[in-house]
Structure formats: C-alpha cells, structure tokens
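Handout, page 2. Input:
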Amino acid sequence: MFFNSLNFAIFLPIVFLLYWFVFPKNYKYQNILLLIASYFFYACWDYRFLFLLIFSTFLDYFTGIKMHEAQNNRLKKFWFWLSISVNLGFLGFFKYYNFFVQSFASAIAQTGLHIDVWTLKVILPVGISFYTFHGLSYVIDIYYDRITPEKDIVDYSVFVSFFPLLVAGPIERATHLLPQIQRERKFNYNNAVDGLRQILWGLFKKVVIADNCAEYANIIFNDSAHQSGSNLVLGALFFTFQIYCDFSGYSDIALGTARLFGIDLLRNFAFPYFSRDIAEFWRRWHISLSTWFRDYLYIPLGGSKGGTWMKVKNTFIIFLVSGFWHGANWTFVAWGFLNALYFMPLLLAKTNRNNIGIVAEGKLLPTFSDLMHMLVTFGLTVFAWIFFRANSLSHAFSYIEGILTKSLFSMPTLLPLTVLALLFFFIIIEWIGRENQYALQRTGFQWPKPLRIGFYFLLVFLIFAFMGKEQVFIYFQF
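Output:
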C-alpha cells in the first residue's frame, strides 16, 4: 500500500475515525487498533513477510525481558547475542546472500578458478532494514541498562510496526516513541491540521517533483552511453532531486500521518541541499539513520575521543557501513567511501562543526560566501549520487567519463521546461521555509487567507495533475 495510492487515501480516514471517535478515551484500545492497522498495512505488500515482522518483534520483546532478568552477565550476553545474531542473520540472508556468494565467486575467478555458486531468488521484505534497526537499538539500550524492557507486548509491537514509519522510517528510538505510545493521547485540532499540511507537502514532493525527475533520470542513466555530457549532468541533477524529494516526501507523509494520531516521530530531513559543507549535509540528511550509526557504531568504536587515526578510521567505518546498509552493490560502498573522503578535510582541520545553525537565518538571501559553499557542497553531493544511482561501478565510471567530454559544453537535448519550472518553484518554497521543521509549516501564514488557501489548492491541483501510475518510493528497496 503506497502513501500515494487510492488505497491509502481510503485506509487512513477509516483508521483515523475509529481511533478518535470509537476509542477516544482509552489509549490501550487505540494501540490495539494501531497494531491491527499496521499489520494490515504491511500485509498489503506481501502477507508472507508479516510473519517475519511478528517473529522479529517477539524475539526482541522476549530477549529484552530475559536480559533484564538475567542473574549474571554471562546469561545476559547470551540473550543479547541471540537477538543480535538472529536479527542480523535475517537481514544478511534476505539482503546480502546473493551479493556475498557472487562477490566470493568473482574473487576466486581472479585466481583462475571458476566455481558454480548457488544463488537464490530472494524477495527483499519491505522495510526489513528499518524495523530491524528499531529492534537492535531497543535490545542494545536494554543491554547497556539505558532503558528497562517493555512488558506490554502490544505497546512494544506498535513501537516496532507503527504503520507510518514501518517500511521506510524514520528509525525510531524506544526512549522517544514508547512513552508516547504508553500514555493517553487527546485530539489536537491544530496539530492535526499541521499534520495534513505536512502530508500535502510530502505528496507534492513525491508525485510532482520526484516522479517527474525520475522519468528523465531513468532515460539518461539507462542510456548513458549514448548521451551527451550536458545530458549526463542533467541526469545526475534530476536524480539528485528525485532521491531527496522521494525520500523526504515519504518522511513528511509519515510524520504528518503520525501527527494525526497524536504521535510525533523523529525528524528525518532538515533541508540538506542548503548545507554549506558535507558535515552539515550529513547532519541534515536521513537524520535518524545518521544518528543511529553515531550512537550505536561510531561512539562504541571510540568516536572522536582518540587520536587522529582513530577519528579517521571510525569515520570511514560508519560511512562504509552506511553505504552498505543501502544495498548489496559495490556502488553503495563507493558512495559511502566518497562521502568519507569529502568529510576528511573538515575532520582533520577540526571545522566539521563550523556550520551548525541555519544558513542565512532571519535573512532573505545568503551571503556570497554561504552561496558559494552551498554550491560546492551541492556539486560534491550530485557527483556522489552518480555512484548511488549507477547499476555498477563500471557504469558509474563510464557515466563520469561521458561527462568529461567536449559534449559537456553542448546544449542538452533533454530540456523538460515544465519539470525545470517545477523544480525552481520547489526550491523557492523550500528556501522560504528552511527555518521550520518542513517547508509549509509556517509558509504563507502572513499572507491574506484567500492567497494562502489558493496556494494550498494549487499544490493539490498539481498533485492530481501529475498523479499517474503509483510509483514506488526509492527507499522501500532498502
């Protein structure tokens, strides 16, 4: 069930009405409803994998309690590693089995030996990377006595499988989401309206911007050998906006939907393409994953407490792991490695925390210096996305070689003026709203009411005008 589908447009109001009008005063019943709705939502993808989600949920629920009750550290470690190994085992099997056996066969082939490998036609369970990380953080926090285990299986199950975040995040923490699940929730009209506004902006980003950019990015990347350098640059730019608007659009819809039920999810994006250096970009891009790796990998490895070598090593580790988390392809590893290289000058010069605040805060336009830094950072990001989008490393390198030709200075043959105009409109709205949680949160509040309502109707019109075949969200494959 896609967020941008008719099915979801029917599903959401039904759950909303039951939630607030049938069970308005009993959060326990509301949680049961959310759990049933979440399992139904997930089963619409493939009901067979619902059992994997339920098994993973019960595993972490049970091992969490057993760790807390363990009489000695040895028993506590047993339950901890049981949960970790089973969770990572499932993730590794479904996501990386074929990658590892094929990579092994390729490495052996370099020695002159050829072996037949047994690959599987494995269907990747949607959302497995996200709900696995929910469970891992929960188990790790219990192991290190940061939290106590949840005894109510319904409450814990909702934490893992709450339908707005189930298939593509944000990756929640028990310390943030569970307390909201465990308390009474009262309907707040302003909060609900704000949620609808965020859903509207998320749909606009996905349907109008991402899906249109995807059309031209696919044309160019899928036929890159026959494209001019200028077309290839356009293809990289289209994909750059596609992946941001697709994923942040999903996150906006998820956060807005959760707000309809009186629940606040972690913010996942903070206008990353307005960053002035790559460190700022990573503080603003896929925030829930970046902070997860920081808290559960970077800091346990020693973080920034050691010498320069430890900082460099740990930085490369988290970027490479982050790349590999995205998929079983060396292109993702290369993307992570490239971002680690980008990060190195800032880390070594100790300037990686120079740009903490919002660019041009309180001003209409950035300074010339900020503008140049944003353009350089954006350019580096666009270049890195080529590896992320390419089918293989050889495809990525040939794509870059195609850019570095005389045809780079030719007029592009693919110039979709409508899409470029929509992108220009989108960037302006994002810039105006960059000081808020999302672009529409306060945008237009000072406008006359008819103008503001007209603006919302324009967004709705554009969504319906460009809504065609339901396009899957990019991050469902991760």
